[in-house]
Amino acid sequence: MISRGIVVGQYYPVNSLVHSLDPRAKIVISMIFMVVLFVGNNFYSFAVAGTFAVLAVTLSKIPWKVLIRGLRPIVFIMLFTTALHLFLTPGPAIFQIGPLKASWPGLIQGLFIGIRLIILIVFTSLLTLTTSPIELTDGLEDILKPFSRIGVPAHEIAMMMTIALRFIPTLLEEADRIMKAQMSRGADFESGNMIQRAKSLVPLLVPLFVSAFRRADELAMAMEARCYRGGEGRTRMRQLRLSGGDYLALGLTIIMSALVIYTRIRFGPVIPRGTL
Description:
mainly alpha, 10 helices, 3% strand
């Protein structure tokens, strides 16, 4: 179940081609996609990356409403970033409010950043939505295993990262419950300016930290009760093996990356230098 618009860290169980991919392939593809998305510097690049993301979502059978719901937490960041570019980027004016002048280059740049954020969040959310925590831990451990020769604790790092991802939605749900409990007792989190609202959230932090430490202690006791002593000597019920589908997905990712690089070279930045 996906709870209250929180997508990162949650797993959506369904039978799909993306779910069946090797977790190592999905991690590598996600990393390549993030790098390539920031390499792209025009809307043609985003069209290529966006098409790749839409194809991945379609094959994953994840409902679009789940992914769109996951964009809600970044709406404020998108609007704030767009407003900064709109009013602080020099160029031909669209309109003016007092000393603030909105420019066309600022609008284009703001939309550019907003679209990049949307594509990034939608695609990277697929990693946790289509990969169970156990598979994610195994995949991260295998990727980090070559570094264990120089003393890097691959298993422990993979375990910590997976637990952190898994507890993101849990802690956000806990914060929501605490906030509703305090509001029922007369607490006000919605009135006043931004600074007053931030101060009103301070009483929320103490019970949230107490809850987080309690959950961490319970998790540690549960792991010790199951004789967990790290990754040394542990075996797996399912051995990871790359299949033809994994190589096909990696090949499509490489083709997408090449197209994004081509559009960057061919069409240049979204706002040509010297026009500001």
